[in-house]
Design a protein that fits this description.
alpha/beta; Maf protein; 22% strand
Length: 204
């Protein structure tokens, strides 16, 4: 069994479209502060593995607005809770001439073994997270898988999805206007899950 570590059931539903055997692990690991998603996902994967002593997949994602130098990025969840999705849309419309943005997702996998990093043709998956040592000297490698989708910030549209989905438009529709299947086809999380699934299947 592979435990998908998240407090968001919507992410689990998206994961099961590609990894039917995953089970949700509702574990609120301590999140480190970093301007990049990779170190956050890696630290979360190590913490979750230590918590359950079993293979885990940790998801960290964010909305990166180009005109704000990538903000809110890794702080997307905090901004969503404190400021609100619609306020982010209004702020972008008021302050920016270009509404370019990207959704990014990084998955961190840890199973307590000495993992080999995957190698993608374009290099986006050639990422091996730094190793850290436990107190007893045992290292916990993590492998990272990234997905990136470019789009635009728009006024809220649609009633599906979750989080920033109503204000992120790609291929002429917001994530919130897409069916779950269509969203998965255009999803940053879907890209990362596909990369992980291909790598994981190749190990068995």
């Amino acid at each position: 069994m592979l435990r998908y570590v998240t407090t968001n059931p919507g992410k689990v539903l998206e994961a099961r479209a590609r990894l039917p055997a995953v089970e949700q692990l509702d574990f609120d690991y301590p999140e480190i502060q970093s301007p990049d998603l990779g170190p956050i996902a890696a630290a979360g994967a190590r913490a979750a593995y230590r918590h359950v002593n079993a293979p885990v997949l940790v998801d960290d994602a964010g909305l990166f607005v180009a005109g704000f130098d990538g903000f809110p990025g890794p702080y997307s969840s905090f901004v969503e809770t404190t400021v609100g999705v619609e306020a982010v849309s209004r702020l972008c419309a008021r302050e920016l001439d270009e509404m370019d943005a990207s959704f990014r997702c990084v998955l961190g996998y840890c199973d307590g073994t000495d993992l080999d990093a995957p190698h993608g043709e374009s290099g986006e998956n050639d990422t091996h997270a730094p190793r850290v040592d436990d107190d007893d000297g045992n290292s916990l490698p993590v492998v990272l898988f990234e997905g990136v989708v470019d789009g635009q910030i728009v006024s809220p549209r649609g009633s599906g999805g979750f989080g920033y989905d109503p204000i992120f438009e790609v291929a002429g529709a917001t994530y919130a206007e897409m069916s779950p299947g269509d969203k998965n086809d255009h999803s940053h999380r879907g890209q990362a899950l596909d990369a992980f699934a291909d790598w994981h299947d190749g190990r068995s």
